[in-house]
Amino acid sequence: MKKTAAQLAFEKGNGWGGKRRGAGRPNKSGQVSHAKRETVKSTTPLHLTWRLNGDFVNLRCGEAVEAFKMGAEGAKKFGLRVVHYSIQSNHVHLFVEAGDNLELDRGMRSFGCRFGKAIRKIAGGSGPVFDGRYDLHVLTNPTETKRALGYVLQ
After folding, report:
1. Global pTM?
2. Fewest CB within 10 angstroms: 2, 47, 73, 137, which?
């Protein structure tokens, strides 16, 4: 079995910025941070948001929805279970479960490859389909889970 390298944490050194709240240069790119992701457990649900890079295609068209379903089905092989989802015109909200960070990583790679290739086939052109990384929110308590589920489904 192939071993994968563990993700290393970026250690902040001495220098500008300090440890003050709000210190440092603000992120104006609108992209998700490349900091280490939160730890995922099989007992906690996850809320993911993944945005398209541009105006490729309306994700609510029939072909895109079928591609989404095929991508979600393919991610099951890697331990990622898509429980609920909401497809918007330019992004998707996913309510998923994964056993650990490795299952989440592999499942989202599988989902992203399948779904991205299908979107690229529908829209044509070349280049990345998704706008960087997906946004991950680990839901830690029942109230947070209920609110996130209401947000995704309504």
Report:
1. 0.76
2. 2
